[in-house]
Design a protein that fits this description.
A hairpin with a 2-residue loop joins β4 and β5. The strands form four sheets. Strands 1-6-3-2 form a four-stranded mixed beta sheet. The chain has a two-stranded antiparallel ribbon with strand order 4-5. The chain has helices at residues 7-16, 19-37, 73-81, 87-94, 110-123, 126-145, 155-171, 174-177, 180-195, 199-203, 210-236, 243-249, 254-284, 287-304, 312-317, 321-326, 329-342, 396-399, 441-458; strands spanning 67-70, 85-86, 347-351, 356-358, 361-363, 368-371, 462-464, 490-495, 500-505, 513-515. The protein is 49% helix and 8% strand.
């Protein structure tokens, strides 16, 4: 375990100290950093425009790191295709949600990164992915049944928790996935990493602020959980059909196995959890597409499952992998449209060289690059509170362009896919494009289809406002306060077979709720 000796004692002492002591130490260290690192480099004609203000107030100049934000067609094409723009290096500094342990999830040699990517590809081969289908559905059945027949829940918590469970099932071990309390603990620890990710903890990861100490402690707990699972498997000598066994049987270094599980758990859960939450939300406002998706799944059940199979999850598990992937065009279209409107993540890279020019602006070697835009396109109609401010999606310069997607804020899975051309490069980047598409796309799509299919067959839902009236418009995405979820509102569910309503709270900015009837 690559933790400095005595670090835990130092961390405990710092956390137990009074706020005045903690604040004073932090201020002194910050002042030293500012005095040492603050300087200003004159911008040339080839340099991207800098943020205004003194250099020590601009986080894009602090600690000698250059961060460049790109948008627009030519920049998009260059960003996703430039050979020197490295995804792993980009996330190492700019993303604080992934637990960083040097040699495990950060500071990895190219060879280790290549091994992790290779193992992720192995998880998504036909046989292992097919073997995961019954387990994903059984986890989903158990979690969905836990909602009970009445009550309230937050879909951006509950659906996310469901997807976290299925991601743990797919990317770790049976011992962890079978222990609901342990899965919940892991989610809490990863959430703590998220909550503790501030500009200060990203720019000064060594600064012993309370937030950073908590992040460090959460990282250690996650590390310990994963290591215990690996050691328990090795000591038992019992082989199981799961991802951990595949990693062990491949003869990989323990650090590679730990890094695979620690890093990919959160990367997978964040993406699929957010997307699934938005899918359920959007479908609640569009009864036509909800019914089309439900009819599609029922049709697959009629063809490929045995009507005498006792449980719905077991019947869905009888549908072959290739059918889920090739014969569910409605679900495919819903996923695609959800990512167009609800894509929460920025794309991050680091230029490992050589230096390149984009639109006559220099992107030097070593610079960090972000492709995330907030468009100038018209915002959606305001719902409820006149003061609501709606931001665009992460890739709004293309995904909300009305010349590409007419009425761009409208959720419409029936839209025709737009082909990339010389004049319109990369009109859709929901899964990434070019040389860096999402490496877990196949697994993510299967998880989304299975869990949403089970939900749709168990519930009918329709949007209503707080007074029980159907609103004039469905929910719109808003990327403030947290990049992946709304900040309040209400969903009311009614279980089909029980006809008992249950209320669900989520996202303050959404002046409506979902009512499942």
């Amino acid at each position: 375990m690559p933790y400095t000796i005595g670090l835990h004692s130092a961390a405990a002492a710092f956390l137990s100290a009074g706020f005045a002591t903690q604040f004073s130490v932090a201020i002194v260290i910050c002042l030293v950093i500012v005095l040492v690192t603050a300087y200003h480099v004159e911008d040339g004609d080839e340099a991207p425009q800098s943020l205004p203000g003194p250099p020590f107030l601009s986080i894009f100049q602090l600690m000698n790191n250059t961060v460049i934000v790109l948008s627009g067609a030519s920049a998009r094409r260059a960003f996703f295709n430039a050979k020197g723009f490295d995804l792993t290096e980009g996330f190492k500094i700019l993303s604080g949600a992934i637990p960083m342990v040097r040699g495990v999830t950060s500071g990895l040699q190219t060879k280790r990164i290549s091994v992790i990517h290779k193992r992720l590809a192995a998880v998504q081969k036909n046989v292992p992915l097919s073997d995961l289908i019954p387990a994903i559905l059984e986890d989903s059945r158990r979690v969905l049944e836990s909602y009970g027949t009445s009550g309230t829940f937050d879909p951006f918590e509950k659906i996310y928790e469901l997807m976290f469970q299925t991601t743990v099932r797919c990317l770790s071990s049976a011992e962890i996935a079978d222990d609901a309390a342990l899965v919940a603990r892991l989610k809490t620890l990863y959430d703590r990493l998220d909550a503790g990710t501030t500009p200060a903890t990203v720019l000064f990861p060594w600064l012993p602020t309370p937030a950073m100490i908590k992040k460090l402690w959460a990282t250690k707990e996650i590390y310990d959980i994963v290591v215990r699972a690996i050691e328990a498997r090795e000591q038992s000598g019992i082989s199981k059909n799961d991802t951990l066994q595949m990693l062990v049987d491949s003869g990989d270094e323990k650090l590679v196995i730990v890094g695979f599980i620690m890093g990919l758990l959160i990367a997978g859960a964040r993406a699929t959890g957010t997307t699934a939450s938005w899918m359920i939300t959007f479908l609640g406002g569009h009864a036509d597409f909800r019914q089309k998706a439900k009819t599609e799944v029922e049709s697959l059940l009629g063809i490929y499952s045995d009507a005498t199979t006792p449980s719905l999850s077991s019947r869905l598990a009888e549908i072959p992998l290739e059918v889920w992937e090739s014969q569910a065009p409605v679900l495919d279209a819903i996923i695609r449209e959800t990512l167009r409107l609800g894509q929460p993540h920025a794309a991050m890279r680091r230029n490992l060289g050589p230096e390149v020019y984009i639109n006559d602006k220099l992107i030097p070697s070593g610079a960090y690059i972000i492709y995330r835009t907030f468009s100038t396109f018209p915002e959606p109609p305001q719902l409820g509170n006149k003061d609501n401010q709606y931001a665009s999606t992460a890739f709004s310069d293309v995904h909300l362009d009305p010349t590409i997607y007419p009425d761009p804020w409208r959720f419409d899975p029936s839209r025709k896919e737009v082909e990339s051309t010389a004049n319109l490069p990369l009109p859709y980047v929901g899964w990434g494009v070019g040389k860096t598409t999402c490496l877990g796309t196949r697994l993510a799509k299967v998880e989304l289809k299975l869990t949403v299919a089970l939900f749709l067959l168990g519930f009918d839902h329709v949007l209503v406002d707080k007074n029980g009236n159907v609103p004039l418009a469905p929910p719109e995405t808003k990327l403030e306060r947290h990049p992946s979820m709304p900040t309040a509102g209400r969903i009311v569910l009614r279980q089909v077979h029980a006809h008992i309503s249950r209320a669900v709270n989520y996202a303050d900015h959404l002046p409506f709720s979902l009512f499942l009837v």
